[in-house]
Amino acid sequence: MKRSARIVFLTMFGAGLAGGLLASAGVAQTINLGAANSADFKILYATAQDVAEGKRVAETMCAGCHGLNGIAKQKGVPHIAGQRAVYLHLEMKVYQAGGRGHKVMTNTVKYMNDDAIMKVAAYYASLEPADPSGGSAKSAPAKPSAVSVGKAAAAGCGGCHGEAGISKTPGMPNLIGMDPKYFIAAIKAYKGGQRKHDMMKTLVSGLSEADLNNIALYYALQKPGKAQTPAPGNAAAGKAAAAGCVGCHGEGGVSGSPTTPGLAGQDAQYFVDAMRAYKDGSRNDATMKGPATSIDETSARNLAAYYAGQAPQAAKVGKPLTVAEWAERCDRCHGINGNSTDPRSPTLAAQRLDYLERVLHAYKKGERKSKEMAVMSEGLDDALVDGLAAHYARQKARGLAYLILPPPPVSK
Prior knowledge:
single chain, 412 residues, mainly alpha, Cytochrome Bc1 Complex, Chain D, domain 2, three-stranded antiparallel β-sheet, 20 helices, 45% helix, 5% strand, elongated
């Protein structure tokens, strides 16, 4: 059985690293990275001479953008002082292969050989990291969350649909607890004319895609409640008639599909009006036209009374994580407060705010490729991206030194 080498890393306080040599003060911990003698980890054996030669490469190739001290002055250019050496080495190889879509970096490293890339990475890794960014990260106003933006945007809906989406006006639907997918589809149907309602079409015509998403999320996360409106009709007869609706709308009107509306707790008059609309074609829905045509006015009122009395359930939508909760996830790979202990993962602490924002947006849009980061950034909105960037830009960066230890002896 092949045994893996171990890497000991030491968190450094004070002076920068000296070509992988250990300073006098530090906290040592051990991690197992598997085959540490592979080409990727060769850089961890860099000597003081390698670092000195890397500095000469940096003077010619890198200092113009990143600074000879690794502290970038240009907007959108990252600090690389104290960055993890293996990560720097691997990233330069990606740029060299054209994998980042960045012409300046690709052209800069295009003709650098492996030895030069290794040494310049070792040089920048040996430097004292940047200080946390000051005013720009600390004073930047926090953007409101998607839920709070949605609440503000939904304020204009309250006059008809009630505060927090609980209707108090007969004929006006409950919006609370509605699944976002159905809500967005319904609003788009009003905008596009598939649902014929002149007032609604006018009211929603100015809503952007972001507005729709935020309003839908706000209503979906509210505690569900029944419409506070009268429900004339025979609920017992409606329950019997509802047997044919269960397949799509669920038992008791609690839908199990995000694209099929829940009917539990819905305003009774709205239900009846909707059935009429499906019948006469003012709502264009082939699935509903057949069932609605077979239901007379009395049956519609009975169904409405039954569903109005049922308890609605919350939509299966997770509340967005806070910046602090997202940072806990990010720290799993990038280290506590963004100080990576894995030489293959970049440290984020004290990085430039504008660079972090740009890169996170690039991962989110798929402009920068990484399977892991594509998954991690999928649920980020603009406010969270800005919040995370500000969080890590404020953190104190700590340099690390690594030592390769032989595999532990096999016990007999």
